[in-house]
Amino acid sequence: MNQHSFPKHNAPATEKKAFSDTRHGIVRHDEYHWLRAANWQDVLRDPSLLDAQIRSHLEAENAYQSALMADTQELQKQLFSEMKGRIKEDDSSVPVKDGAYAYGISYVTGGQHPQYFRTPRDGGDKTILIDGDKEAASLAYFSLGGLDYSPDHKALAWSADTKGSEFYDIKIRDLSTLEDSADLLTSTAGGTVWDAASQGVFYVQMDDNHRPAKLFYHRTGTKQDQDALIYEEKDAGFFMNVSGSSLNDFVFINIQDHETSEVWLIPANNPQAKPQLVAARETGIEYSLTEGGDVFYILTNIDGAKDFKIMSAPVSAPQKQNWTEVVAEKSGTIILDVGAYKNHLVWLERNNGLPRIVIRERISGAEHAIAFDEEAYSLGLHGSAEYDTDVIRFSYSSMTTPSQLFDYNMVTRERVLLKTQEVPSGHVIENYVTRRLLAPAADGELVPVSILAHKDTPLDGSAPCLLYGYGAYGSSIPASFSTTRLSLVDRGFIYAIAHIRGGKDKGFAWYENGKREHKVNTFTDFIAAAKHLVAENFTRHDRIIAHGGSAGGMLMGAITNMAPEAFGGIIADVPFVDVLNTMLDDSLPLTPPEWPEWGNPIASETDYRTIASYSPYDNVSAQNYPPILATAGLTDPRVTYWEAAKWVAKLRDQSTSGNPVLFKINMEAGHGGVSGRFSQLEEVAYNYAFALKVADRL
Fold this sequence. Notes:
Number of strands: 37
Shape: globular
Structural class: alpha+beta
Helix content: 10-25%
Radius of gyration: 25 Å
Strand content: 25-35%
Mean pLDDT: 96
Strand order of the largest sheet: 30-31-33-32-34-35-36-37
Number of helices: 13
């Protein structure tokens, strides 16, 4: 059925060039290795430096996918118009109070990028601090990074990426004149933290391999080459970022990979002081600090607390030997986030895929929780910018309910609804149904699946289904509201999210059993979710379009190799599909920090063989693949463009089905796709048009 939905055009012929790699005595041949730009570091900074043969091939791929999708142009426009119509174009956030001001984000009608503004604390005239549309004018790509106002509220450090490569330039803006100073900090990670006296900022600089290697302190009004080096991370296997405490007392240097962390402290009133180590990195031990006046609260998995517990230590002596337990671990209920205020301790936890917020009085220890009754929903803990407060902020949504923002008084327990997400074109909650299913996995585990459907969609197996999954790094996909999904659901699609292993939906063990040697569980869980949807008569296998991006793109590649008959189509955004080659290339930005997640195939033959057993690119074989769409960004530093390019070439060479394999690459963007809220909708519209085309719902 599906191959007839696409016009006949000759796919680009991808040249094969001999290349082999030998590790642990095992020889692999990679005929498409040449698509990897030898000068990829230079291309990230200047895409015009891409090799001409590679560029020609990528442009041919774009021409091919454009030809195959030509008959969906009107549909894409219609989808875009619908999705745009559900956005309140002149939307504004509820400002967050801090000192004499309240800070927020707004958009203007027709604007692609946000404006950052402030008002007097209790309302009044709005001052635009950063106008994203103005800053983006004439640029093909523009993405705002960090924005951090100084403790005295007189200056703003802000950053932007203009290539999609995630190298951010930081500028300092005088908030009395709204003009940028001569300060310019290049090749940074984008984030800043001010010192207590508002005289300068801390920032992380990226090295040539796009790794956060050095922390500097920049005193405003000086040149970048005069900045003081505060800390250098010598181990390429660790990420580094900088953050600050809510009382502006401390600067945190946070070092971590995917299973180990380390924190160093700098007094914010002495920015060039020698950093103080809290607890030395110890493989498998994670911890993070939240300031609580005279103590630090520490969220950690120490002492075997896989689902984390909360401890405390004196600010004057925060070392590990002084940690004492405050909130014990509850197995199966993972603590995700902690906030501390003068009189209260607050944390966000998740049990069996559903979140709740718990509030404890610091003196009495009395606790209560904020939770909701829907089968599947999402909570966000926003907290407060101020420490001495009884009011925090949280958000709530479900797959049917638009996002609601509340102020919550932790003493009186009063909820004040501040804002409900507006859907200008209209949204009738009663027209939609949401369900939570439990799909049995092969080993007996039950995989949660969140379902969204229109109330009029027949659940008799006739409906097409878009099944989304991620399943890596412990990231959980919330059952939250999305206006874009409605364009599929209103056309009779079921939208489903498989909460598979590799995320922390059911606690840390859910993550642990979906990584390294257990990675295959992620893939079999997703296939089990697809089979359960069919068994329960929601859909049929040839009507399921699977969707995932980045590490979820790896999922797409793996399930396509393992069970191509279970899916009618595949959408893989910026897919991490060349896993073995990438984990063998320690020059790439994320490779050393990723070894704890996937294994180190350079050092370990066992890890090599494990990754080789599922790496999508390495396991493409002669079988009947469904129609496949892959997307990529030329300047993506996270999942390099050549992963998708090579995978697509090999799929076309091996597939016996005759179904098309499309590759759409953005030549002016990176991992997050195009910049601008409306341009991003155009990308969603393209993906949905592909899904509708595959499902014969044009």
